[in-house]
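Reopening closed ticket. The problem is back. First fold of the pair:
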Amino acid sequence: MEPNGRTDGFTNSEELSGLTVYDPDGDKIGSVEHVYVDDRTGRPDWVTCKTGLFGSKETFVPLAGARRQGSDLHIPYSKEMVKGAPNMDADQHLDRSEEEQLYRHYGLDRRTGMGTSDERGMDAGTGTGTGAGAGAGAGGMAATGAGAGAGTGRGTGGSASDMREPAMARSTDKGDEWSDKESMIRSEEQMHVGTEEHEVGHARLHKYVVTEHVTKEVPVSHEEVRVVREPINEADRPRSASIEESEIEVTLHAEEPTVRKDTVAVERVRLDTEKVTEQQEVSADIRKEQVEYDTKDDDASGG
């Protein structure tokens, strides 16, 4: 499938990083993860797009015919074609055979490239347009020096080594990555402090009966007898009187204290917990690796 459109003229890998990729039908494919540039021109030519469930797979996508709209990158390839691209290691430099697989999958002709006619003519070296285009196209995946007869051969004596393949390399902002022989990884233990809850005891309520002696004062009353003498006036005096013995009886009353006990509810008692926070110090021994610089000079030891 040929790209139906023009390349957006991408010159900086940073402008492509993180863009959301869409196919011609507007279906979202994924997001740009890595940007690959041509070794000779330094221009972005391919990107890797995260696809699959939860973005677990990275797939190579050519920038031929791609155009940017804001934070979106629209490509002329269907979502199924991108997902079915050959699996490549996205963290490594791609060799020629891997590039060929990608070109075949997307239906691209390596000889057509993705650049302008002026660039193709300048990089191809001397000779006719047809010969220069074919030679450069067979050696590189990008547009530079890859014309198929479109260039006029305006170059100034390009040699065979100048026309070899401009391999594809991953673009990074950190420059060339160190090799395993030039670097080492230093590790150390880190202390993470947390808390966990566990039982420390039990609390319960127990009710029991105690007896205590209570004394209270109670007012009591009683009746007492006293003799009251009243003179009888003339109107109340009886007509006859006799002298004889007699007696009368008076009933006396008195109050006595009594005790009565009733059981009543006086309060409700329950258990409740309250969290109290205090500071405690914890300590542990942690290990870390140290790196020392050492230069061994064999000539110096020999005098």
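Second fold of the pair, where the issue appears:
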Amino acid sequence: MSPRAFSAAALAATAALSLLLTACGSDGEDGDTKPDDKIQGADKPKESPSPTAEEAADRPEIKLPEDVRVVADWSETGKPAEDAILRDTEQRIAAIEMALAEQDPTHAAFRFYSEGEAAAATEEYVKAYVDEEARLTGTIRLYEPTVTIRDDGTATLVYCEDQSKAFDKYLKTGEVNKTPVTKNSYFSHGATLRKDEQGTWVTMTDVTTQGASSCQP
């Protein structure tokens, strides 16, 4: 069973846990393949953003393989709390990619930015790839964020993810499973976060919709 097929099975098994989907490319349901266009914002990737000295105290260092990039295609809002949420979410996505690359379903980096359902679902997701001895290769683009800070101090973050340039890579052979780009290459995320004692915005849940109309190019 390929990582692509296994990922689809893993999604069904972990949907109730609000899995952060990073099942790359497309499942090939439709044939509306789009041109191999350059990803907007990829020229200046923010592949593990540099936190401020205050923020960096106990944060894990994110190191990705040379063939993996996480691009946050959004600008600072000028509002400290909202900008911190965006930075920590970007770091979380990069940490998940590092867990895939290092084949570690319980990697401390993604657990630093996740808890509860989000952490459990991510562990299952990474394990699915580890079982297949595979990871992702290519570029993941995050875009169109909307942050809402609630009266109780928690926050919601809705954003899009473009995986049209990300594919499964088999570690034993180096083979890359390049799937066609379809509407299912694009995802919407609806995450809930809280600020922990260290000042980190931790993701508690992340409900993801594959092929979301709001995230189509």
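Update: turned out to be a display glitch only; the data is intact. Residues 3-27+62-215 form a domain with the Nuclear Transport Factor 2; Chain: A, fold (CATH 3.10.450.50). Residues 80-101 form the longest helix (22 residues). Please close again.
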